[in-house]
Design a protein that fits this description.
The chain is α+β, with helices and mostly antiparallel strands. The protein has a single domain, classed as Trna Endonuclease, Chain: A, domain 1 (3-Layer(aba) Sandwich). The protein is 40% helix and 21% strand. The relative contact order is 0.15.
Length: 108
């Protein structure tokens, strides 16, 4: 099962809207705003839509995490990875645990 360009772009637009941010039309090093998929002042956001989550977790996950953490540090932002499987209604977010604790008001 392949993932068409329009499908992942649509997912990026939806995530951007939910975050009250803007989809980066030219993500990566060529972008003038951020290397991430979403333009946001506070967060470096990567969005991944894959045919199967298991394949993403086994093959790409660690590389995505390392790259996202490095790029967020370079841009002096907190990082967030949003991912889902094509056709699934479930969407997942990965972020630093201390940030999560702070966001829900339970940091010690």
């Amino acid at each position: 099962m392949t993932t068409s360009r329009n499908t992942w772009k649509s997912f990026e637009r939806r995530v951007a809207k939910q975050l009250d941010a803007t989809r980066n039309p030219l993500s990566g090093i060529a972008s003038k705003h951020t290397a991430g998929d979403i333009i946001d002042e506070e967060y470096y956001v990567e969005v991944k839509l894959r045919a199967k989550i298991n394949a993403f977790l086994k093959q790409e996950f660690l590389d995505t995490l390392v790259e996202t953490e490095l790029n967020s540090k370079n841009e002096n932002k907190k990082w967030l990875i949003v991912f889902k499987a094509k056709g699934s209604k479930k969407e997942y977010a990965l972020l630093d645990f201390k940030l999560l604790a702070k966001l829900i008001g339970r940091i010690k």
